[in-house]
Amino acid sequence: MYNVLVVFGWQDVSRRPEADAEQVxxxxxxxxxxxxxxxxxxxxxxxxxxxxxxxxxIADASGISRMTLHRMLKDxxxxxxxxxLNKLCTYLQCELYSxxxxxxxxxxxxxxxx
Length: 114
Hints:
The radius of gyration is 19 Å and the shape is elongated. It has a 3-stranded antiparallel beta sheet. The protein has 5 helices and 5 strands, in the order βββαααααββ. Residues 1-29 have low confidence and may be disordered. The chain has a domain at 38-114: 434 Repressor (Amino-terminal Domain) (Orthogonal Bundle), CATH 1.10.260. By secondary structure, it is α+β, with helices and mostly antiparallel strands.
């Protein structure tokens, strides 16, 4: 199974005003990880449709270049665009949640009472 790792990093630099002696710590620097499971979806669709699905076929039908599709299959740091995800879902006749899996990788804000 091949997964493409799309990493979005952010840091919350804003702070909520303190109210009633409640202090909210800002989010620490971190990231969340989005896996684009294109290979898995292609394999499932091959079984469902009863035929082989090639990268060239997907590229021709979706308008996504073969090189981009190859990168999505092989490169774990490839940043898939929402346009590409939309085109893949349309061609593969699947929901976005079938194609994409999200895993949080940051600490949630912690509230402390002073």
